[in-house]
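Structure (tokenized):
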């Protein structure tokens, strides 16, 4: 029998929306920090629809890769298969609290975004019609107000058994 990977050992029945360090890996001499940006409470709240997840991915990745102070550190930003949040992989050794200001800025950008979603065209994306900007903005506002702007240690560290 194969061992469970680390993310499957977290008690998802106790996990609240928040910003968590999921894991740290070595890539040569460098550290890669994987963050769990958990937007909905697993198994208690509805998951996000694919259109919102897809819109978050386009806006979040565009925002992060255009931030001068983070553009060369962002390795990946994308959805969890369960559709309860996103993974952000950064080059460097970070703690959850280190990226809270970045997440506040990114979710504010998404909440306030107007216009065409970057990359939402047939030439640029494999499923460009699966987007929902109004609902994405609503979910970004909710995550900001209910989690990021009042975040504390209970939402920065995974629950312990």
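Design, position by position:
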């Amino acid at each position: 029998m194969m061992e469970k990977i680390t993310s499957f050992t977290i008690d998802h029945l106790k996990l609240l929306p928040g910003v968590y360090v999921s894991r740290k890996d070595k890539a040569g001499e460098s550290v890669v920090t994987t963050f769990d940006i958990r937007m909905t409470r697993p198994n208690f709240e509805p998951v996000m629809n694919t259109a919102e997840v897809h819109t978050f991915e386009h806006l979040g990745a565009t925002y992060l890769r255009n931030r001068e102070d983070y553009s060369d550190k962002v390795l990946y930003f994308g959805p969890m298969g369960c559709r309860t949040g996103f993974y952000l992989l950064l080059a460097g050794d970070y703690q959850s609290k280190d990226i809270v200001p970045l997440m506040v800025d990114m979710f504010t950008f998404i909440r306030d975004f107007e216009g065409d979603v970057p990359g939402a065209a047939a030439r640029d994306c494999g499923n460009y019609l699966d987007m929902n900007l109004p609902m994405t903005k609503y979910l970004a506002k909710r995550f900001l107000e209910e989690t990021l702007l009042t975040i504390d240690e209970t939402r920065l560290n995974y629950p312990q058994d």
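Reviewer-requested clarification: The chain is about 25% helix and 20% strand. The first strand starts at residue 18 and ends at 27.
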